[in-house]
Amino acid sequence: QIRYFLSNPQTPDSVITHHWRVHGGRHGNCSVFRALIPIFLLPSIRRSNKSLIAQGDIMNIRKPLIPLALLLLLPVGAFLQENMRGVKFETLVSSTKDWAGDTLSQAPAGQPELSIVRVTIAPGARLPTHKHPVLNSVYVAKGSLKVTLADRGETLTLSEGKAYIEVTDKWHFGRNEGDEPATLIIFYSGVKGVPTTIFQKETETSAP
């Protein structure tokens, strides 16, 4: 009956839809059949006012669309669970402010350039006073490091296994007060031609 209605150019679209709903009622609770309604209604498309698209043409249109519809009906959660088994995502840090509480500045104009740097600080060693003109973040792979803002005296201890949004354009230095080397992985979101780190000159005032 469905084919009869679909092949009759005088059949209104509303009749086709009603007929599908009535005879598809036995599958009314099946999301697959509900989703396939648009595909089986494709024959209601007319060429001018002469007749429906030929039965063979419609089948050619339906065939590639049916697998696509079935794919789209797959539950997203189940799909992800099946394909992400053994995979874990964890956001270590995400913020619009640095660890000192200041809003991140706009990145300089120019060609973006990303850099990843590993820094190892021996026990008792001190990083020279410096600043970063570009946005950056740090992950502490091992040990810890006490960071001090030279102008404000604020301090923060970077702990192993944690990530931080670093300060930008602020003079600061770090000291390893632990008993083991501290290893930092620093991620710079910079601009080509702009240094990621500027060290304070000896003639400038520096915190001890």
Low-pLDDT parts are 1-7, 27-36, 45-53, 203-208
Rg over C-alpha atoms, rounded to the nearest angstrom = 32 Å
Total DSSP E strands: 11
Distance between the termini: 90 Å
Q: How many strands, what sense, and barrel or not for the largest sheet?
A: 4 strands, antiparallel
Order of helices and strands: HHHEEHHEEEEEEEEE
Count up the helices. 5
What is the overall pLDDT average? 77
The top level CATH class name of the largest domain: Mainly Beta
Shape: extended
Helix content: 25-40%
Question: What would CATH call the architecture of the largest domain?
Answer: Sandwich
Looking at CATH, which topology of the largest domain would you report? Jelly Rolls
Q: What number of domains?
A: 2
Q: What is the strand content? A: 25-35%
Order of strands, main sheet, comes to 3-10-5-8
Q: Find the CATH superfamily of the largest domain.
A: Jelly Rolls
InterPro entries: Cupin_2, RmlC-like_jellyroll, RmlC_Cupin_sf
Protein name: Cupin domain-containing protein
